[in-house]
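ok, trying the design again with the full structure, not the truncated one.
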């Protein structure tokens, strides 16, 4: 007599959005000025692909709150003139800047990506950034 075992391979559903990590770090640029803005902030974005497929960043959508002028939207293709492909296990970093008119503001938004394996489009939130000069924190 023998035993027959049937083995079922169950693949767990995994949302690719949870496998893309976005880190955002702002910095007050006290020596820089932009006409019409009282404060200038730079920010560094790091995007890490922990999935098993290559992805392409195709669009960005920012919501920028300024204590003086309210909220404005900034959207467009890619980032800093690029639409980077990020392979599994890789990361992409870039720096940009944001002027604000008051001594406090914030930024949040999302990136639009394309899964290069199946051409599906998906969105990943950008963590909120608080824009405060150092002297406000003291």
């Amino acid at each position: 007599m023998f035993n027959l075992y049937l083995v079922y391979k169950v693949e767990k559903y995994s949302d690719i959005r949870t496998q893309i990590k976005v880190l955002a770090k702002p910095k007050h640029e006290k020596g820089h000025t932009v006409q019409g803005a009282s404060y200038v902030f730079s920010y560094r974005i790091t995007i890490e692909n922990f999935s098993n497929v290559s992805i392409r960043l195709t669009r960005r959508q920012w919501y920028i709150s300024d204590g003086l002028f309210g909220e404005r939207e900034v959207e467009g293709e890619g980032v800093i003139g690029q639409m980077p492909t990020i392979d599994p296990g890789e990361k992409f970093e870039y720096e940009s800047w944001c002027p604000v008119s008051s001594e406090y503001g914030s930024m949040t938004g999302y990136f639009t990506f394309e899964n290069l394996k199946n051409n599906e489009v998906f969105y990943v939130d950008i963590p909120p950034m608080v824009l405060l000069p150092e002297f406000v924190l003291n």
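Keeping the full-length input from now on. Residues 17-132 form a domain with the Immunoglobulin-like fold (CATH 2.60.40.1470).
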